């Protein structure tokens, strides 16, 4: 006869320890595989080439590296490349926002053509852009001839470098701000207008805080493109050392002289400075998002 404790005992769990330890199914299946592939791809395409530049430049030794990377000619090229890229990105920040505003808020004949023209620098070969800009802004060009009468020279000067960088950087700002403006709609502007706000106040207090992260992103993209631009700049710059020579051209000059270590030294300096400036811009973006979300 079976005892009472045996009858009252709960049934044994037939599931093994492995089943009890089975992890819950991930909400994102394949995360480990896709993350690994992402890191591998970025490592091969981004980190490995940058590491190769830094390692190759270190073979010069500290003294020789400083002599090549911080020579007066190299410093002049750095100032022109980074300064012109920053100025061009700032100009594109203003006029790119205006163009994005017009394309989003207004309907007019030829709007699709204007929108296509904004994307033209993306598809146009940089050499073609450089030749076209030189033909227009030279002293005998359509625009350059009129400016020359006023004593203003664009081609073969640092101003020509800025013009070329503005041309190739404009689409980055326009296409970054455009979807943000499209998502905002007109209702918030109309609401602000009904409360008595003027156009400048509406832009400064309503629109600008909303588009600021996108504007900073477009600025960073235009700046990065301008720093590394080569093809469209060399035709209009004149390429005079200490005057209109950009850093990418100086790297190519070093390579033509078979000075590979010197070229990598200059490239390493540009890499570090570009990374620091982009990191600063990203930090400003993060601070802007935090301020918008917390209000402090």
Describe this structure in words.
- With 296 residues, the chain is an all-alpha fold.
- The protein has a domain at 82-245: MetI-like fold (Orthogonal Bundle), CATH 1.10.3720.
- The chain is built from 15 helices and no strands.
- α5 runs parallel beside α10, α8 (126-137) packs parallel to α13 (231-237) and α14 (247-256) packs antiparallel against α15.
- It starts with a helix and ends with a helix.
Order of helices and strands: HHHHHHHHHHHHHHH
Instruction: Name the overall outline.
Output: globular
Q: How many strand segments?
A: 0
Beta-strand level of the residues, as a percent range?
A: under 5%
Mean pLDDT: 84
For the biggest sheet, the summary is: none
> What is the correct CATH architecture of the domain at 82-245?
Orthogonal Bundle
Whole-Å distance between the termini? 77 Å
Would you identify the regions where 5 or more consecutive residues have pLDDT less than 50?
Answer: none
User: Might you state the CATH topology name of the domain at 82-245?
Assistant: MetI-like fold
CATH-level-4 superfamily name of the domain at 82-245: MetI-like
Structural class from helices and strands?
mainly alpha
Subunit structure: The complex is composed of two ATP-binding proteins (CysA), two transmembrane proteins (CysT and CysW) and a solute-binding protein (CysP).
GO molecular function: ABC-type sulfate transporter activity
InterPro entries: CysT_permease, MetI-like, MetI-like_sf, Sulph_transpt2
Keywords: Membrane, Sulfate transport, Transmembrane, Transmembrane helix, Transport
């Amino acid at each position: 006869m079976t005892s009472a404790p045996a009858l009252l005992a709960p049934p044994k769990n037939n599931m093994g320890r492995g089943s009890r330890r089975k992890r819950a199914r991930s909400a994102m299946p394949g995360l480990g595989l896709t993350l690994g592939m992402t890191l591998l791809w970025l490592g091969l395409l981004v980190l490995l080439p940058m590491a190769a530049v830094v390692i190759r430049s270190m073979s010069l030794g500290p003294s020789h590296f400083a002599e090549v990377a911080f020579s007066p000619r190299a410093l002049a090229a750095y100032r022109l490349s980074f300064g012109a890229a920053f100025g061009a990105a700032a100009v594109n920040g203003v006029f790119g926002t205006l163009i994005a505003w017009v394309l989003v808020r207004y309907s007019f004949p030829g709007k699709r053509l204007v929108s296509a023209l904004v994307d033209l620098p993306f598809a146009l070969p940089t050499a073609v852009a450089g030749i076209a800009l030189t033909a227009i802004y030279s002293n005998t060009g359509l625009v350059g001839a009129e400016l020359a009468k006023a004593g203003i020279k664009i081609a073969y000067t640092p101003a020509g470098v800025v013009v070329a960088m503005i041309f190739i950087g404009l689409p980055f700002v326009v296409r970054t701000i455009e979807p943000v403006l499209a998502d905002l709609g007109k209702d918030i502007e109309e609401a602000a207008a009904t409360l008595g706000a003027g156009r400048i106040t509406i832009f400064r207090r309503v629109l600008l805080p909303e588009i600021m992260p996108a504007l900073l992103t477009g600025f960073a993209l235009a700046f990065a493109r301008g720093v590394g631009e080569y093809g469209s700049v060399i035709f209009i710059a004149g390429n005079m050392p200490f005057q209109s020579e950009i850093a990418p051209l100086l790297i190519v000059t070093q390579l033509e002289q078979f000075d590979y270590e010197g070229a990598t030294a200059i490239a390493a300096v540009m890499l570090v400075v570009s990374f620091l400036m982009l990191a600063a811009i990203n930090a400003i973006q993060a601070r802007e998002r935090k301020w918008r979300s917390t209000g402090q």
